[in-house]
From TrEMBL:
Name under which the protein is recorded: Fatty acid desaturase
Coiled-coil stretches: none
Highest rank taxon of the organism: Bacteria
Naturally occurring in which organism (per UniProt): Novipirellula herctigrandis
BP GO terms, sorted: fatty acid biosynthetic process
Keyword Membrane in record: yes
Entry GO CC: membrane
Compartments (UniProt record): Membrane
Main location: membrane
Keywords: Fatty acid biosynthesis, Fatty acid metabolism, Iron, Lipid biosynthesis, Lipid metabolism, Membrane, Oxidoreductase, Transmembrane, Transmembrane helix
Fatty acid desaturase domain segment(s): 76-306
Ranges annotated as spanning the membrane: 44-63, 69-91, 192-215, 227-248
């Protein structure tokens, strides 16, 4: 394990993702077209197939045969481990916005957890999200729901976006991240997807061993538990985390209240905050993107922020960026 800490985001990277000069007014839900770089629309069939398969697998949870308490409990724990630690805290607040720093081993661990949610590699996720912050709800925001709600939720995931495949795009948005060979390697040969597969296989295999052990050596129970753990702790959890992230992009740019007059249509949405560990306080987040806390008012509970505070308390998180106190009431 290395003891070095991550360096704060390089100033040049920070400059590149600063919001560009866009009009504050004039957001017209009827007029925002799909991003130019997605025209003509081309479906990414590999994404459609993988996402369809994981949704169908998740639906198998309705079969009584698939139910085990251990599977359900692992699904809930996985929502915290992979969803919150991996996506919300790892991909988003740490890697995208550098809301805090931590030892490299912890940063990489959080990134590995993030890859277990079928949400692409860390560099691609971060590049897309930084682009979203720079252009939010204006062209060429990759996933504004003002183009269409379905587009903002999932359409953008399954359609080709030419800019996102360009090296220049990566150089512009994630130069800081790709200086680390760990992230660079993951870009090659879909390395992140194999991390997902490996974790799914591991959970399934441990499920089989667990079923075999608690049934006193029944093969049929070993098989049932391996299915159950796959369905609940991998498929259901992954689908839940996917829609949690997607609702931040869709619902939190359409429904909810605003504490801040930001230049986009971002909203604070309690339902999204609940299912995505605090990410639903999205208007706060667009107003102060680097703040590691997204809940700015006392009643805006932000589970991820509590965890970051805990990491800070035990000395694992440093340089924690807090909301600017004088503007918290917008
Ligand atoms: Zn947003
Ligand atoms: Zn963000």
């Amino acid at each position: 394990m290395e003891n070095s800490t991550t360096t704060a985001v390089a100033p040049d990277a920070e400059d590149d993702i600063a919001p560009i000069d866009l009009p504050k007014q004039g957001i017209d839900p009827q007029r925002l077209p799909l991003p130019e770089a997605t025209q003509p629309l081309k479906i990414l069939w590999q994404y459609v197939i993988v996402l369809t398969v994981i949704h169908v697998m998740a639906l198998l949870a309705f079969l009584p045969y698939m139910f085990t308490w251990s599977g359900v409990i692992l699904g809930v724990l996985g929502h915290f481990t992979f969803g919150m630690l991996g996506i919300t805290i790892g991909y988003h607040r740490l890697l995208t916005h550098r809301g805090f720093t931590c030892p490299k081993w912890l940063e990489h661990t959080l990134a590995v957890f993030g890859m277990c949610n079928l949400q692409d590699s860390p560099a691609r996720w971060v590049a897309i999200h930084r682009m979203h912050h720079q252009h939010s709800d204006h062209q060429p925001d990759p996933h504004s729901p003002l183009a269409s709600f379905l587009w903002g939720h999932v359409g953008w995931v399954v359609c080709r976006h030419r800019d996102l495949d360009r090296t220049s795009h990566y150089e512009r948005y994630v130069r800081d991240l790709l200086r680390d060979p760990f992230y660079l390697r993951l870009e090659r040969k879909e390395g992140w997807f194999f991390v997902f597969l490996a974790h799914a296989m591991l959970i399934t295999a441990v499920g089989a061993v667990f079923g075999y052990a608690i049934s006193g050596g029944l093969i049929s129970e070993a098989i049932r538990y391996s299915y159950s753990w796959f369905v609940w702790a991998v498929a259901v959890r992954t689908v839940f985390v996917l829609h949690g992230t997607w609702t931040v992009n869709s619902l939190s740019h359409v429904f909810g209240y605003r504490n801040y007059e930001t230049r986009d249509n971002s909203r604070n949405n309690w339902l999204v905050a609940l299912i995505s560990h605090g990410e639903g306080w999205h208007n706060n987040h667009h107003a102060q993107p680097r703040s590691a806390a997204h809940g700015h008012r006392w009643y805006e509970f932000d589970m991820s922020w509590r965890v970051i505070q805990f990491l800070e308390m035990i000395g694992l998180a440093k340089d924690v960026v807090r909301p600017k106190a004088n503007t918290t009431e917008g």
